[in-house]
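Input for the complex:
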Amino acid sequence: MRLQLIIAGAVALAAAEARAQAEVEPAAVAGVRVYADDDHVTVWSPSARATATLPRGVVVDAHVVMDAVTAASIDVTSSASPYAFAERRLEGGGGVAVPVAAQQQVGATVVVSDEHDYTSLRVGGRWRGELARRNATLELGYTAGFDQVGRAGDPTFARDRREHRGVVSFTQIVDRRGYLDLVVEGVRTTGYQANPYRFVPVTMAGAVAYALPEAVPTSRDAVAALVRLRRALAPAWFAHVDYRLARDTWGITSHTGSARVVRALDDDEVLLGAELRGYLQDGASFHRASYAGELGAPVWRTRDHVLGAMHTLTVGATAQARLPWRGAQATAAAAWLRFGWGDDLRQRDRDAIVSSLTVLVPL
Amino acid sequence: MKVAALLIAGALALGGCVRVRPHERQTLAHPALAQPPWPDAQAAQDHVYQVREGSEGAVGAGGGGCGCN
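Predicted:
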C-alpha cells in the first residue's frame, strides 16, 4: 500500500484540524504593518482581507494591501537620485477553494500588484488531499507570474519578467502532540531581473572610470526545501523549529534556521510568542565588491547587495488576545532584524524593525 | 534537487506510519500549533525577507511581485 502511494506520486495527507479551521473560518481582518530601518527607508502597509464560506463548502477570500514607501537609502541616493523618494504599491487579490471529493480540495488565486514603475500578475492553482485517515496532508501548488518592469521618467522602458513556481507541501501527524512539515518549492524566473535605476561603477587602475547599467542573467532557477517540527511541549507551551536549504543557478546557497516558542494563557484566550531566526547566504557567482575593467566591461554586473554574501538575524515577539467584542481577536507583533553584508563597500549592516497590528472579526 | 527528491520520497514513505484517532487530537487542534500561528504577522516578515534576502521559497509567502529592490 505504501509503495503504491509513492509510485502514484499523489499522496493525500490529513490536514491539521487547527489549520483547516483557521483557513475556512469566515472572517474580516484589518491591519497595518510598518517597516523602518536605519537607512531611512519606511514602509507603511495598511491591509484588509475577508473570507467567507458559500454553500457546498466553497470558501472565497479577497485581500487588498497598500505599501507606502519613503526612502533615502544609500541604495537610492548613490544610484538613482540624490534625493529621497516616495511611492505607493497597491495589491489586490482573491481566491476560491472548492471541495471536489472526500478529503480533497482544489483552489485558485489571482493577485495583481501595481506601482508606478512595476506591474505584477500572479495566477495560481492548488490541490490538497488527505491520506491515512487524515493523519497526513499533501498539497500541490503552481503559480505563474507575469511582471512588467518600467522606469520612472522613461515611458519607452518596458521589460518583461516571467516566473513559474511549483510547491509540494506534506504534513504528517507524528503523535498526539506534534506535526512534521516538509515543503519543497522550485522557481524558474526568466526575463529582465536587474534594477533599471542601478548603475555599476567599473574601475581602471584602481579608480572609477565609467559606469554601466546593472546587468544580470536573464534566467534563474531556484529550489528550496524546508523541514519543520511543531510540537506541544507541555499543556500550555508549544514550539516550532525549522530549517531551510535553498540554492539557485546564480550560485547563491542559503541556510535558514528558526525557532519559535508559544505560551498559552487565560484558558487559551491569550497567546504569547517569541521567535529567533538566523539566515546565512553565499553570494552570486557574478557578484563583486567592485568590478575592474582592464580586461573589458564585465558581462554580468550588479550593485545589489542582496546578491552578495549576507546574513540576517531576527528576534521577534507576538501577542494575540481575544477581544470582548463579537469574538474578535487582535494580534500585535514586532521584530528586530539585523542585515549584514560581507563585501559591500558602501554599507556593512542595517537594522530594521517590522511591526504589525491586525484585528480579526468573525463573520 | 536530489535532496529535495529524497525529502519528498521520505515524506511519502512516512505517510501512514502514525494513526492518531480524531478523539485524540485535542492538543493538535490548538491554535498555537497552526502553521503559522499568526498568518498576518508572519506575512509581514516574510515579505521583508523576500525583498531583502537573496533566497526565497518553501515558506508560504505568496502575494504579488514588486519592484522593491
